[in-house]
Amino acid sequence: MARLASMADLVLRNLTATPLELTLVERFEEEEEEPSSCCPILNCNITSRIGGLFNSSSSTVNLRVQDDAKDPDAKDRREVSFAVAPFETRATDVRAAVPGQETVRLTFESGGHRYQVDVTGASQRSTVMTKLDGGPNEYTAIYVAAGSCLTVLSSANLSAWMRELHDEYPLSALSIPGTHNSPTYHVALPSVRCQAVNVREQLENGVRFFDIRVSVSPGSPDMPLVHSAFPVSLTGTRYFKDMLDVIYSFLEANPSEALVMSVKREGTGRGTDQDLSKILKDHFYEGARWYTEPRIPKVGEVRGKIVLLRRHVNDPSLDGEWGGRGWGLDGSVWPDNCADAMLGSGIARLQDFYEVEHPRNIPDKIELARSHLERAAEPVCPLPGSEGYRPDAPPPPFFFNFLSASNFFNANCWPEKIAAQANPAIVEYLCLRHGEHGKGPAGLQVGDASTGVVITDWVGLDGDWDVIKCIVGWNARLQLKQ
What we know:
Largest sheet: 10 strands, mixed
Number of strands: 22
CATH architecture of the largest domain: Alpha-Beta Barrel
CATH superfamily of the largest domain: Phosphatidylinositol (PI) phosphodiesterase
Structural class: alpha/beta
Helix content: 10-25%
Number of domains: 2
Oligomer: single chain
Low-confidence stretches: 1-6, 37-69
Radius of gyration: 23 Å
CATH class of the largest domain: Alpha Beta
């Protein structure tokens, strides 16, 4: 009984554009399924904590969803009424589930329809709510045990999530998930590989910022994909053109979407930045597929296109492009290993602190990422016709926020090890604290609550896309203003 008395009450956080009301709470004794040789997923541990999100499969428990929302096996059943407005956090007097002992089944109503989710007492991977009566909305729930908080997100169609957003928003106002060294998903040298899945899977699951490094030889359009001096694959050279063909195919199938691509010269090729700019201009940058104007665009201007962010100096022959303003978003003056700095061109504010020498320093890196999320949440972007809108107002800068870091000489600080801590920690922050006035590391006030561009390692491992889902989910805040 002492253990039950010590449990905190459940907190509900609605991060969707629709109101929700918790109407029914049922409790069940928890029963784990017996291990099955024909279905490995049933061997999962229902009490895995958020630190294990990154490497675990979804948990399963022996419970049945009842269409009539009444289950005779429930040990306790209570009708309640807790209304939670869009982007509201509300405390309840509903006791959170006891880890390892019980599961709490919650039934919500929205727009006259009912949705249901089972919550255990431990943090777990996201769960899509069950529709009890064919409701039109799709909801995803994430329970964070650290705050006894159930966070509800819109289950956006990740392959086409940008279609829900107004054309007039500047691209920098959006919450955009990205990947660091995006094509490094092949068999590679230690610390070179940064991603779990291929480029197409990243795109299909919502990633809209790609970090690309190429090796350049003067006059040759055959640019190998690299990470620092090393090829991204030990099983054969991978080329920029082949990756672009995959991206073009995705954008043709999903014309509502846009992709920001950072392109940087690395590797052992003898070409210069100037060579790279000319090769890209002459062989790759097609007007119908690329946005190369040196200004932050609006969403409607770039649907179906790749937005160029160049981390290289242009050849002087490109200085006259776009009325003498140059070519591409300028990221050529990129502060190195920085906690918070402006790009030289002023188009972005950057957190890219990547030197983590020891595992004990990983929490410091995570705190830098939280601080940059808080900064990204401050700006406000009014739409035309709304209060405060000025057609001549400059767009906010991009907030580029790298979760990635590594130390080649310490296997405990390779990208996958850091991501195993950073990704679930950011899921927790986005569910509990992001978008709440004064709840960030510096106690800042909140504007549109964008996350900025959050750039990740090792997403999609074992099907875990929760950090991407959380980032995309925050765009629902913009939908409220449309």
